[in-house]
């Protein structure tokens, strides 16, 4: 994060969200939303590239970094995370819509926000990186199982295998044990082993352990309820979908039906 960033606090539902702003005060606002188990520091290498053109706003999601950590699992439902996003957007840019760049669970969260009626007035554009709309993922799986083909069944099985780790996150003791084992060498080392990321490009936040543990509530509060009963979620705002074709958690073909739900969609596949 820029050393010139100004920290403020936005309150939603009693949750105090740590918000950071830097960049061009006359530029269009862009809100950056991190995933699990990150904080706003995820964007530390990206923010300097945006500051000349944009007012750059990032924040720590509830349960992470300097923001409030709710104790209740229900506090991590996507509807409440989407409400946090709108609280931040309304606070930093009450009179103009914002661009949004989101990653991982941050992208999942903003997909939820993008499906809300106010999105067309509050979100100018949305760029999603490596985070699915869970309703779309559920619908995608249902369509392959209801009209089974060999290729479709293979895709569903491959996606299920890719997401197997989420099962452990639904078991509190086991999730803590898994996180401790995964992060024993540190987050940069884990990302290097897991997906080949250069550890020099990774900023490890000091609250990593607690953020990772608290963040498993995201999985428990949302995965099973949404995937087993997905809704029709139509998106009316411009969406730029960036797909990592080597993503080991969300396989790229899951996004193949996104055009059915998003009217204005641009997709770029990046190996």
Describe this structure in words.
It is a single chain. With 271 residues, this protein is of the alpha/beta class. It has one domain (6-270): Rossmann fold, CATH 3.40.50.1820. Helices cover 38% and strands 20% of the residues. The protein contains 10 helices and 8 strands. It has helices at 47-50, 78-92, 105-114, 119-122, 134-146, 150-162, 165-168, 172-182, 187-195, 208-227; strands spanning 6-12, 15-23, 28-33, 54-59, 98-103, 123-129, 239-244, 265-270. An 8-stranded mixed beta sheet has the order 1-2-4-3-5-6-7-8. A hairpin with a 2-residue loop joins strand 1 and strand 2. The longest helix has 20 residues, at 208-227. The chain is globular.
Compact description:
By secondary structure, this protein is of the alpha/beta class. It is 38% helix and 20% strand.
The Cα radius of gyration reads 18 Å
CATH superfamily: Alpha/Beta hydrolase fold, catalytic domain
What is the straight-line distance between the termini? Answer: 27 Å
SSE ordering: EEEHEHEHHEHHHHHHEE
Key terms:
single chain, 271 residues, Rossmann fold, 8 strands
Question: What are the SSEs and their pairings?
Answer:
Layout: E1 6-12, E2 15-23, E3 28-33, H1 47-50, E4 54-59, H2 78-92, E5 98-103, H3 105-114, H4 119-122, E6 123-129, H5 134-146, H6 150-162, H7 165-168, H8 172-182, H9 187-195, H10 208-227, E7 239-244, E8 265-270
Helix pairs in contact: 2-3, 5-10, 8-10
